[in-house]
Amino acid sequence: MKFIPKISFKEDLKSEGFECVDLQEFYHRDWSKFEPNTPFFPHRIDFYVLLIITKGSVKHKVDFQEFLVKENECLIISPNQIHELNSESDYHGYFIFFTKEYLLNYFTPSTYFHISQLFNYHIFKPVYQLDECMMDYAGRVASEYVFSPYVLKNQIISSLFSIILYKLNNRNLLFTEGITKQGFEVFEKFKNLIESEYSKSRNVNDYAEKMNISYKHLNEISKRFTHRTAKEFLDDYVILEIKRKLSSTTLSIKEICFETGFDEPTNFNKYFKKLTGITPLEFRSKLS
C-alpha cells in the first residue's frame, strides 16, 4: 500500500456523529469490494472509537503497537491514529464511533474538556478494564441504538454513553489535577498545528510564534499535558509519523524522507537514529 487511507465518519450519519455496531455484524460484512481500505488494513480515522469486548478477545494494532483487548475491556482510539483490526480473532462486543462535534453537541464545554483527557494517548494507555455497571450501560447503548422507538432516542443514548465516559475518565482525574481548560485549549492548538505543519518545521519557536505565545509558556503547557518538553513532544510526533509510514506503506526510505520534510536522506537517517537508536531501514526490517 503506497499511502495510508484516511477514513472519515459515515456521510449519512455525520449530522448525528454517533454509531454503535455489533462486532460480529461488523466482522461479517462483505469488505472485499473496499480492499485495501478496510478495517483489517492500516488506516487513519478522523473520529473517536471505543472498542468494547463482551466475550473472547481481539488483537488490535494502533500506531503499529498491538494491543490485546479481553472480555470486559475497552480500547480507545483517537482521531488521526492509525489502526488495524485483526481479522482472525473470535470475539463479541461493540464498536462505538463518535465525532468531536457529537461531544460538543451533547456535553457542556466544561464536561467536554474533562472527557477529552480520556483520549490523551500521550499520557494514558488506551486499554481500560470495565466494571459490571459500565458493561451494562454499553449493552444499553447498543440496544437503544438499534431498537429505541423514542423520539428523544439520541438524548437517551447520549445520557447512557456519558456515564461510560465519566466512569472511564474518573480513573485519570488524579493524573490530570491542576490542568485548566485554558491550558488544554493551548495544548490542543499546539497538537493540531504539529499534525498539520510537522513536515514544514521542527522548530518549536515557529509553533510558539504562530500561536502568539512564548516558547517558555508553550514548553510549560507541553510538560503539563504530555510530561515532555515541547521539543520532545514535537520530535515524538515526527518519529511517530515516520514509523507509521515505514510500517504501513510501501514508500521508499527516500520518499518518506522528503514527505516528512527532510531535505536529504542523510539528515533524515541521523535524526531517526538519534531518537530511536536504529536507522529507518533497520526499523522497517524488524517489522518484517
Automatic annotation (TrEMBL):
UniProt entry tagged with the keyword Transcription: yes
HTH araC/xylS-type domain: residues covered: 188-286
GO molecular function, one term: DNA-binding transcription factor activity
A Pfam match: AraC_binding
Keywords: DNA-binding, Transcription, Transcription regulation
UniProt keyword annotation of Acetylation present: no
PANTHER family xref list: ARAC-FAMILY TRANSCRIPTIONAL REGULATOR, TRANSCRIPTIONAL REGULATORY PROTEIN
UniProt name for this protein: HTH-type transcriptional activator Btr
Organism per entry: Aquirufa nivalisilvae
